[in-house]
Fold:
Amino acid sequence: MASQAIDLLWIGIWLLGCITSILIIVAIFTRSVKKWRAERRESRKKEYSTILIGYLTGNIRMDKIEQFIENHPDSIGLMFELSNELQNNLRGNDKQKIQKLLSLPVFINHYIRLIESRSDKKVLRGLIFFRELEWLARGHIQKIRPLLNHKERYIVHAAAIAIMASEDVKDRAYALRSLCRNKDVTRLAVYEVLYRFRKRDKEQWLDEGKHLTLLITDPDLPISHRTSIAIAMGGMGYYYHARYLLDLLRNTPLDDKNVPFIAGLIESLGMLHHPETILEIQRLLLSVNSVLILRASIHALAKIDGKEGIELLFHFLSQKYDLQIQVEAAIHIINIDILAYEWISETFIPDDANPEIIRQIKAEIGNENFLAGV
Amino acid sequence: MNAIYSIILVDLLTWLILGYFFVINTVYLVLLVVSFFSTRKLNKSRDAYEITGLFDSDLYKSVSVLLPVYNEEENIRSTVYSLIQLDFNDFEIIVINDGSTDNTFEILQKEFELFPSERFIPEIVPHKPLKGVYKSNLFPNLIVLDKENGKKADALNAGVNASRKDVICNVDSDSWLEPDILKKMLRAFVEDETSIAVGGIVRIANGSVFERGRLKQILSPNSFLGKIQVVEYLRSFLFGRIGWSSVDGLIIISGAFAVFDRTALIETGGYNRESIGEDIEIVVNMHQHFIEKGKPYSMCYLPEPVCWTKVPESWDQLAAQRNRWHRGLADTLFKHKKMIGNPNYGWLGMFSLPFHLFFELLGPILELASYLLFFTLMITGLLNAEFAILFILFAVLYGLILSVGSILLDELTYKPHTRLRDVFSITIHAVFENFGFRQLHFWWRLRGLFDYLRRNKEWNIKDPNPTLTNALHWGWFAAFNLFFLSLLYYGMSA
Amino acid sequence: MKTNQLTLDIGDREPAGLPDYGIKPVSIRDPLILMIEDNEILLELFNYKFKSLPYDFATSSNGWEGLKVAKTLSPDIILLDLVLPGLPGLSVLKSIREAPFEVQPKIIILSSKNREKDIEDGFELGADDYMTKPFMMKEVLIRVRRLLK
Structure:
């Protein structure tokens, strides 16, 4: 028994010893390879940035760079990275120049190949390239589109963002809808895509808004994403559609599952500064006690500004609300525009407000400013 | 009759100890593998999430960075400077001077041109009274709270009340954050909506070169204790924390860098002022609260180094620190004892917490038992010397695999940052760690456990005579290794 | 909070020496532009651009060092980033404004911080101009030229 155990231990020791040595060797090997790569990259970075700067300042022609990349195919990744770093800091003519460079067939063809490959890692690299392009041809969109049904969430996200460069609002709306069909996509991820959805172009504005309103009411999408889109419409300033959102707010029945959606609509209308929202909030306050809606109302009222809005904002200092709600209202009151001080009056303060909170608000704003209009 | 009983007892104990050893290391090994795969997966999808667009709208999350300080006149300037330089669009820094008795506050006041300010600070979570609120003339997003001395949790609560942003990030005064950490953190929220807590890998700053708030060169610490802790931290963060978080069993987010959703934090009542280890307590508390309320939530660990912290390099301070950590663990497990083994709390209650109770908290007792058994057997002559030595060797090697595995994981996933020399010396220290240090560590933790049972709730137990403690520790170290070597010699010759 | 009496120098010192910029004395040189910025490729871009024009150009990629360079060379224009290693941009700005220069340099902030509040703070601390990233090269040149008049 004892000798058996000892034999077993010996085997174990040998085994563990071997594994440990292999691990150490692999560790040292990876480290050396990585270090070598990093050093090579550093030296190339210098060389390539000189080329790119030469191009930007007009001393190196574009076809020279094209030729360079053709002769050094492995330079393309770093070249793209550096161009991207430059264009992120530039706009106007300088940025257009970089965009023109990135639209060269050497770049496009290389990254189209990556998109079509089977490895997720390469696909992602391809998508990241197209994400940085401001302009996409039909053919590219056709290539990216199938990735919207990819099983990996992050690929779908990257594909949706890449398609946002398309000029055609239908493409963009389609990609957005594909992304939103996935319930696991987060709110912030939807925002990020939506931010790129909007083109800084008045012509498309109405169209974009129309597509978004369709998505908001699309029963196939999870309500959480419809809410996100509604909020983002406010955040991105689709003023023309404020009326529509307002009607939606009026007509959405007030049941539990709709509460976040209603809160989102209020939030959005607040960002659009629509004054009629105040009336709606007043109406809702009669029947609602959901923290989400109360909070959204506070944010909206603070954004809308205006006398009626601020007056209603003070209403939230009432002690019938949770301390958290009172505090939130107080902070927004503190942050209102200085111009508002002229017409704020003591009568705004509800009778059952916490005197300590009122004292602190006055102290922070400064007594001489506060209630100057009295 | 008696002899039979004692043989059975010894046998039982032996099996218990072997079982303990086997289970703990196997769980660690599994965690290491899990951690490897989850890190790889996260690294793969990392670049997919771009967040630049969020900053052009109002739709991102803003951050309040809380920095509690107590008698930090030496570090305070550079720590605050490193926070000011964080690369993020919308954040505020709230420094909470927790009743320092040295010049901490005066230095802050002079360096950052503080002036008294009236700021609305509601009493949402409890803390000791404030003495004053200050703002900086230089940096509009810097706020300093001056308050009466309480514990760290108390100071943090004051910061929570004063904060006005969506997310709370608490940092330690002897830590240094990577400048782009807040952006990385935001990406965690983009990836998972229900995140309420985010942690990050903490590395050891000792030895590295900093230049006025920015890390310049990463080197390993010079001292023996420093190097051993490098291995420890690698293990505990790379597979301990990331591994546990990938199986939803995370119970600790290091206080050196932790991010919490502000609403969730307030909902759970803020930091617990009664606890010894507020960083464990807050996480377990959040688990409990959210599970009981039936709300979906998640906690995650960024698989990237985000924070560099100073660790003690002398025995007495290290002993005090480990003692406190262990008391903190005991305290939290005791406070949440109804969760342990309770299927209502899922994987956490059924596996993670029991594991932490039996293997992490009570581990030192079993280790004590194993040493006692070893000596009894040796004195009574029942010990099979060959078996004992081989077993020790086996145990050391098994432990070494975990250490080397962590080093490898680190090399595989991050930029090459260490020197080859450091990789070697750290590996060697991972071996030496087993002879002397491990036993001391077990002793400190055991004492922590007893201190806790004696209801010693002091945040930090003062060492009456650090010089003596240090000398004793070195003495122990020498004695242990002498003993071990003679044992080895004896075993070899036998 | 503190268990640990060690001092780890988080680099709270001035860098020992400064690189030699080879800048001519004030009397005979072209207008000197100092750019304090940590993005390497931008530094290079501006270096290239300004060197091709009748300007002298110096760079620094660290706030602390940048401040020292500014004090030694007393440039005519400083292009200042706000997020910097070393000293934060706003501190550099304030320190320059408080330093005894013969002629205070004109300071243009060039930063990715683009919120109202940031711009307000920048001007309040004494910046002459504030430009946000992304920017147009030409616009920077035009603004520099205007400030030199």
